[in-house]
């Protein structure tokens, strides 16, 4: 039987059910301590708030969770780092809460989205630029003598219908032609990135790819209804909608003291940041065996020129959680020396040596990542990690327990608390046996 109760420190009532699940509608007050090993369901209202909805991104944070953690574990003016920032949810929330948000990601799409959603552009200038762009697109598409530049990439003509390729190329060329006239204007550089993200955000929709799959795949049973001209309509609608969202962000930014965001070049393992310089680190690492980020965004990266003509596998090797491994790496069983992980590796190895090595490598990479966070965090500061557990070849991989063991026994963190954050919405469909019903949030503390 459900019962409603008011938790100390909360303005709004939360719901508790018989399994002690705490339900919160919207924001959770930072004065409230989620019980250790507790379960919480935050009903998100802000997934498209301001620029949070500028671009779909798999397995991204809903804003209320990082907002709560930022408010609870940091203060105004402090440095908040997301070392695997994805679509920039943490960085934007840090900025909106008058912290200095720092975002690092190896994924070029992630870096571009994060930059765009946290960059303030004068609304009047942006709207005039958008009108200029749509006029150019209209002129270009009505001129049959002009041939837009269509990039070459593997299986291009399978992914897109011929008229869609031409329409995307016309939009892309129109953006580039407009920007070439303002190449020495820094504000126009920001506007150009905004246009590119809007273009990127519709590419999956107008392709032949299954819109609900974690990976970019073609399915015989999925036949999209795409007509000539749809690409222009989708782009124009998204363009002016996001202009409005950025205008809202610009208005809210007038109330902020800092408005500072830093997006340094680096990786989660080598951030390039100073020792003892960060007040709070907060991230959601990749899921093992669930989200292949380069493959998910391959069409967008080809169109934006991030992949060149090289193989996708070359790029994928650089990611934590990569599935691109070589056969000689998993001929023999790899063990870690961790009490929880090694029996899991052995069980998976009996049916799938490759998967066993992928799991092994993920946690080896995460060990380095944890060490890097320990280095850059100030003493007494926290690292909050939201991690989903997995079912791999029928074996449950409790990533939260394994990371806790690594962080405390090998790195030097203290495990302050853990809690389970239940998920209620997914951008992408993951096969049911491997679907994450939620994430465990680890609150690690660097000792004083």
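^ structure tokens above, recovered residues below v
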């Amino acid at each position: 039987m459900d019962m409603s109760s008011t938790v100390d420190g909360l303005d709004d009532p939360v719901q508790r059910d018989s399994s002690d699940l705490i339900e919160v509608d919207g924001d959770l007050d930072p004065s409230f301590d989620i019980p250790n090993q507790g379960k919480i369901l935050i009903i998100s209202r802000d997934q498209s708030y301001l620029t949070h909805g500028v671009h779909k991104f798999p397995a991204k944070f809903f804003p209320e969770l990082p907002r709560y953690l930022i408010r609870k574990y940091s203060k105004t003016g402090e440095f908040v780092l997301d070392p695997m920032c994805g679509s920039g949810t943490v960085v934007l929330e840090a900025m909106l809460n008058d912290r200095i948000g720092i975002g690092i990601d190896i994924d070029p799409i992630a870096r571009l989205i994060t930059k765009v959603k946290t960059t303030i552009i004068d609304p009047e200038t942006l709207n005039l630029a958008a009108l200029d762009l749509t006029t150019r697109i209209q002129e270009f598409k009505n001129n049959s003598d002009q041939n837009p530049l269509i990039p070459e990439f593997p299986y291009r003509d399978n992914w897109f219908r011929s008229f869609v390729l031409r329409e995307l190329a016309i939009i892309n060329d129109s953006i580039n032609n407009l920007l070439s006239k303002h190449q020495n204007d820094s504000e126009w550089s920001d506007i150009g990135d905004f246009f590119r993200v809007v273009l990127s955000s519709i590419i999956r929709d107008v392709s032949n790819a299954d819109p609900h799959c974690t990976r970019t795949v073609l399915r015989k049973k999925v036949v999209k209804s795409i007509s000539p001209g749809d690409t222009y309509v989708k782009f124009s609608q998204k363009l002016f909608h996001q202009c409005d969202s950025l205008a809202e962000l610009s208005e809210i930014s007038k109330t902020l003291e800092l408005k500072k965001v830093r997006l340094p070049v680096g990786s989660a393992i080598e951030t390039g940041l100073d020792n003892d310089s960060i007040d709070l680190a907060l991230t959601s690492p990749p899921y093992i065996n669930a989200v292949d980020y380069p493959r998910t965004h391959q069409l967008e990266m080809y169109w934006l020129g991030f992949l060149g003509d090289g193989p996708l596998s070359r790029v994928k090797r650089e990611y934590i959680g990569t599935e691109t491994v070589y056969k000689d790496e998993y001929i023999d069983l790899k063990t870690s020396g961790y009490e929880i992980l090694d029996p899991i590796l052995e069980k998976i190895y009996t049916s799938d040596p490759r998967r066993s090595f992928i799991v092994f490598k993920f946690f080896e990479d995460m060990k380095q990542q944890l060490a890097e966070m320990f280095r850059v965090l100030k003493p007494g500061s926290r690292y909050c990690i939201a991690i989903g557990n997995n079912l791999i070849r029928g074996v449950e991989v409790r990533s939260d327990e394994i990371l806790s063991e690594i962080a405390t026994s090998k790195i030097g963190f203290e495990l302050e608390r853990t809690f389970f954050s239940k998920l209620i919405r997914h951008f992408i469909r993951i096969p049911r046996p491997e679907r994450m019903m939620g994430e465990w949030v680890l609150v690690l503390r660097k000792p004083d």
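The first helix runs from residue 64 to 73.
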